[in-house]
Structures are given as structure tokens and as C-alpha cells.
Amino acid sequence: MALLSRYGDKAKLIAGGTDLLVDMKNEKINPQYLISLMKITGLSYIAEEGDVLRIGATTTLRELEESQIIEKRYGLISKAVKCLGTVQIRNMATIGGNICNAVPSADLPPALVALNATLKIVGPNGERTMPLEDFFAGVKKTKLSVGELLKEIIVERPPARSGTAFIKLSRTAEDLAIVNVAVRITLNEDDTCREARIVIGGGVGPTLIRSREAEKLLLGKKMEEELVKRAAEVACTGFSCRPTSIRASPEYKAEVGRVLVKRALLEALKKAGGVVEDDERN
Amino acid sequence: MKEIEFTINGRKKRIAVRPKDLLLNVIREELGLKGTKYGCGTGECGACTVLLDGRPILSCLTLAVAVNGKSITTIEGIGTDEHLHPIQQAFIDAGAIQCGYCTPGMILSAKALLDKNPNPSEEEIKEAIKGNLCRCTGYVKIIAAIQLAAKRMRGERV
What we know:
The complex is a heterodimer. Chain A is an alpha+beta fold.
């Protein structure tokens, strides 16, 4: 922390380095100082405490992938991690880096937002918390102030009768996402929708998108296929992706997004124990 | 310059490095171990793969100062000219080497897999070597070689 306040914006924090060093090599950034977080012991952990999971910011993606607790009870994180990069990258890259780089196509943030994750941030004025959903300010921009760093990610355990799904579309699995979708739904006893969280990432805008409008459509209703389809359409309107994106056109992203959101909702519904009349794939 | 100490292929080394030095360059230029290759330099190809405390990482995206106190294994550290590692032998026997540029990284990724999982499925092998690009072989013989090595390392006589 002292180093951060001494060097201010002349310094960059480095964890796994898999994004930062590539940017430095491409001369996109040229920080005078690098401050490594990897020497701080006690910043890498996965700990379950009651109904929350605490993940230290420098925990590597591979450690998340290998965690039994995550596999069993926070499966959405496992799914997102497994389709991210290669073994070598996952051994180096950290959860904090995947969040703080604020790359719009990152895979973990949508899954974590769907799970209602909160960030613990430390800075010169002490600690504060912020929902991950509010953390992104734009492409490669976050709401961290100078001198602050991300310390911990707190994930809420999905309530009873919840189902989750993560779907990523990319050219090859290790490639960056064209579109990725993460959802969590929770059902009432009568199988109506109690809560839905629909998050779309993969560069469909400068930040990921949580579609509250589509979520509202589902609330209190039986999640029949027609309704789910309509929610998916609502969720995928108004993307503001760059038309120059090298991975796909905005039109393609919206089109494929609708299919993926619908599939994800139906998959989550099944996992939550709801009944799906699912006679067509799309 | 900063002095760092780390273990490379079982031997302790103390060496002075600049803050910006990459592990790959230190291994190749300072230590003269040329088996680790420079490919893309941006974490796509896996030719620079080494094992850090047993786990495959990319030495082209690792700062040398970051391995202070840690243990690195390169391709030179897993066998000798007289006694190749079973994975190295299997790569030769299965015809899994063509130009050879990807081979050191490929073998180290395979080693990390087999050390943890002595009997991997084909899917698990593919996942383990996904980060190692081969432009010659089409991977079929590489996968066969890793399966062959796995059998031999489990004690089967093949």
C-alpha cells in the first residue's frame, strides 16, 4: 500500500502478468514501476464461511478450477474458469486480474455477477465493499481509485431451488469470448420465478450487461418457453458493441446472444428443478 | 540489478537480473539452456513452457524476479542423453516430433499432466496440451505418444 501511494499512477499492480506483460510488450502501456501482489502472503485463498465463499484476489484460476468446494457448490465459477485460456494461463492468471483488467470479454465477471459477488477493496482510507456489478466503468476501466486494490471477492451461495448456467461462444475454447452468458434463477415452491439474474458479457458493450428488464419479465411467472424466449430477446436488445470488433459484428452478437440466453435460462431452470417443455433446441 | 536465488533443474542458482528481464531470456541467455523456445512472446503458443513448482507456466510472460525462491524445471531437467524421460522416449517411438520446436513445451505440459493423473483420458490429454501449438503434426501422434508414455510410466510393457 505504501508503494502504491508513493508511486501513484507511475506504477501498475502486477499479479499473474498474463495481460499486463502482453500490453507492455505491445507498448500499449509503459509503467515506470511494477508492484507485485504475488509476494503478499494471505491474498491467495478459497474459504467457505457459512453461506458465503471468500476468494483472495491473487488466487489463480487453476486453483479455482481444482477447488472441490467451488466445483460442488459454486459450479458456475468452475464452468466459467474451465473455458478460460489454457492450463499455462490458468496457472498464472488470477481472479483479481481477470476482474481488475476490466476486459469486456472476460469470462469470470459475468459468472460472478450472476452469483451476486461483492468486492472487498482496500485503500489509504481503509476498506470498502462494492457489488461487482457496479465495479466496471468502461473498457479496461474500473472504479478503483488511485492507491486502492482489490483484496477479496465474496460470493453468495445460491439459495435453495436455484439453478445456474454459463455458456460461452468463442472461435476455440481458449480464445476470447464472442458472447458469454451467465444466469442464476431461483424458483418459488409453485415453480414460479422468485429471482432471475441474467448477465451477458463477451464484449457486447464497454462493460458486461445485466438485463434487469428481462429479469423483471420472468419474476413471479412460470418460466415457459415462450416467456423465456421473450426475456432472451429483451436481454439482447441495445447492445453497444464496437462495429469494428474483430471477433463478430454487433448484429451477430445480438442474434447469437438471444439463442444463448434462452438456452442458459432453460438449463438453469432444469437444474433448479423446474419443468421445461423443451422440444426444440433453440 | 537484483540478485535472485532459485532452483533450476534441481540445482540452486544465484543470479543478478534486471527488473524487466523475462524468465525465458534468463533461462536461454544467462543459463544457456536453449531447450526452452521463444515462439509468440504473447502467451499463445506454449513453446516457452517451463514447470514452476511442478506446474506448467509461460516463461515469456513471467518476470525473472518473480521466481525468486521457487523451483523451475526445463526440458533439460527431466532426462539425460543416456536416459531419456519416458515421455521423451515415447515421443520418439510414436513419431510425435517433426520440426521439434513445440516438443519441449509439449513434453513439459504432458509431464505435469501425468505426474498428477497417471491414466488420463484422451479429452484430458487434449485439455492439458491445449496451450501448446504444433504446426506440423496435427496432434494425433502427440496424443498417441502421451498415451504410450502413460502406459510405460504405469509399468505396462509396451
